[in-house]
Predict the structure.
Amino acid sequence: MNYSIVAENLTKKFGDFTAVDSVSFKVEKGEIFGFLGANGAGKSTTIRMLCGLLEPTSGDAVVGGFSIMNEPDKVKQSIGYMSQRFSLYNDLTIEENIEFFGAVYGLKGKLLEKRKKWVLEISNLIGKERTLTGDLPGGIKQRLALGVAVIHKPKILFLDEPTSGVDPISRRNFWDLINRFSDEGTTVLVTTHYLEEAEYCNDIILINAGRLIAEGNPQRLKTEYIDGNAFEIETENPVELMDILKKAKFIIDVSIFGKKIHVITKKQFEKPDELENYCTQNEFKIDRITRIVPTLEDVFIHLLEHGSKNAQQN
Amino acid sequence: MNGIIEINNLHRRYGETVALRGISLRIKKGEMFGFVGPDGAGKTTTIRIMCGLLNPGEGTVRLFDEDILEKRNVIQKRIGYLSQKFSLYGDLTVDENIEFFAEIHNVTDYKRRRDELLEFTRLKPFRKRLAEKLSGGMKQKLALACSLIHKPEILFLDEPTTGVDPVSRRDFWKILADLIKEKITIVMATPYLDEAERCSRVAMFNNGEIITCDTPDNIKKSIGLMSLEIVCKPIKVAYELLSSEINNDIQLFGDRINVLVKSQGETDSILRILNSGNVEVVDRRLTEPSIENVFMNLIKHRKLNG
């Protein structure tokens, strides 16, 4: 197998605090790899290490063929990085921003011209070269930020919450572009708070308190990591039903979705009938109950609140 | 029955830019009502007009059966507003921030209400902490507590969960569910279409208009399409093949493809196309479309027809 990133026992301590605790994972060439965790879980610290910006306390990672311990400068040259803050200069025009970032990556002359055209094309900004960046709406700024992050055609692209606060159409276009890069062989590592976006990933890891607690493709995470079953219940009074269900011993988690409720029950509790009986016993009328595949959000919250089997074994 | 909020034919321009082109809505007491749509679609403008912070160009807004322009001060005492860029005072403690908002709203006897809100938002252990030392999720809950100090009957939330992590988001939704239980009406704007699923009813905004308004389920049924999920390999060959052969909405998600289909016949022909390209179909199933699917579909049709 051809790997773009191999992290082995990556650890970072700040004084007594262990921000990243012996994290190991591998990212295949050309895949879209999701890196999930709550705020403060150690995502940004890990990404900064992988980008060669922060030296690990112990462990190492090979990124694009270079060790982050021994050759951080070569790592920096082979990657692209885009964060939620977009780091564009608002008082420069679109064209000036592209030229500036091109120069940072050492591009000049004809090659810079060629790449500039390419960036304008992929970010769909041809004809807008002289628009002031500060005047652009969020979605368009995001496309430009992505364009300048790949101006040197990096083999590996790091995206740190790239779509925070961006509207649905821009997000869809953004993911189309990411899929295109991946198709052309670029490896993409992305962090996001929006778990329906994690669905776009080939593989995902979840970290909590600096430790890796789950890994696999979205399908595997949804089917193997929840130690229980998921149901959806429709009712006229979801809030009331939520209170009733919260008291039940066989319930692990309840959350409300408009007129519906998502319930995670303990493993042995697997038939909708049993759940329906419980509601009837409590004199509560429900309209419909179906067993569902839990969403990634269900799994994520479950793992953070109840821990992971695998993490305990480690 | 009249709604707690009645909006009729709202128009608004900013100079040359048309922000709203005739918005009409009726929201009932106790609803968890969602505004979804892209940036610049008119969500924030509508909320600001409803709160009396911005005058409409044309049209009327009635809250509690009173006109917002005539009874602005009375109405504003009965509503709460949490804006996109909520402002807390970093150098004040949690307690002091709430006290400050109590003073703004002329709530003199606020101590008991403050305790309630701190309990409710689970911020009690942090009451002496400076606001700037709180995590993002906690800041957001504090801002929510501040906007509730005067016991509003309607709460307007403008993109409250942007940039907040999933654990804090779920916590936030639990708090909102408790508010709904107290019969508070909530109107929330969000650019995240999956959050629409959390609402009892949703208005989809696009380009200053409401393109559809209903329960999430009815909205999903309205387009008469199902989502065909196909797990197959090699996935990129499959995606290219389908993109060139059919006009349906196609999305690539890691190791699977979602295609919007009308009928079993379409499913069969898609499977035939994949088969002819030597794509191995590992698994497939039909599910209801996502709210995002519906939104993209409606916008596409409007473009074609408009």
User: Anything to note?
Assistant: Chain B touches chain A through 51 residues (CB under 8 Å). The two ends of chain B are 35 Å apart (CA to CA).
